[in-house]
Amino acid sequence: MSQLEEVTLSSHEPLAPAAPNPSFPFFDLPAELRFKTLSYLLCTDRRTIDLDPSNYRTSTPRLSLFLVSKAFGHEAYRVFYSSHTFRIFQTHGRFLGKRTEPLLARIPSHYRNALTSLELRLGPGWSDPPKPWYVSDRLGLEDCTSVRTLRVFVEVDPSSPVFKGFRLNRHFFTEFSGKLFREVVERLPVLETVEFDAYPSVDREGALMARLLEDTKAAKKRIAWGPQRDWGDSLADKLEKARLKVLRAKEL
Predict the structure, then answer these.
(1) CA end-to-end span of the chain, whole Å?
(2) Cα–Cα distance for residue pair 217/213, rounded to 1 Å
(3) Rounded average pLDDT over 29-54
(4) What is the arithmetic mean of pLDDT over 179-193?
(5) What is the pTM of this model?
(6) Three-state DSSP class for 100?
C-alpha cells in the first residue's frame, strides 16, 4: 500500500466522541448575581399579576423554570413572586363569576410567603361588587409574611355628584370598600405601608379616599402616594406646615 493510500484511509477513520460539556456552575455565582439573572428570565413587562386570559403567554411559560431542579426552583419562585405585585381580587370580566376563586386563593402557601406587595383595586362593579370580592381564610393573607406594601388603586368614587342617579346610594361603595380594605389590612401580619393611587377623576378629599385614609391612620400604617397622581400633601397641609415653620422660626 502506498503512502498516499495510507493517508487517504486514515482520513476516514471515525473521530473520537467529544467530551460532554460540563454544566454551568450557576450556584457558584454570588446570590446577588443569581437573583439578577433570574430576574431577567422571570420578570414580565406587567409588574402586577392578576387572573387574566393573557397569562398563558406572559407568565405561565416562565414558571417552567421552577421545574429545572429543586434547588433552582426554590430560588426561581422567590424571585418571581417577590418581583411582582399580586392583585388580591380579580378585575377581568371573564373571572368575576361567583365560583371563580381569586388568584391568591390559588397560590400555595409557601409561594404566598415570598410575596412582597399586593394590590387592592377599587372601582370595578361599583354598583354591584363582584361576588368573589370578600375577605376570608381562603385568601391566605396571614401567609403573606413578607408583604410590607399594600397598593390601593381607586378607579372611581361613586360618592361624587356625577354618579347621582346611577348609584344605589351615596355611601354604598364607600362602606363596601372601607370594610374590604380594613379586613385586608387586619390580616396582613407585617404590613407597614399603604400606597394610594387613582385615576384623575378621583378626588383625594372625596368620601371614599377620606374613609381609606382614616382607616389607614387608625391601623397605624404609613401612607405613601403612587406615581399616577401627584397628591402628596394637599394645599391646606402645605400652608399649615409653612405656618408652623414660621412660628418655630420666630420662637428661635
Answers:
(1) 111
(2) 6
(3) 89
(4) 97
(5) 0.80
(6) coil
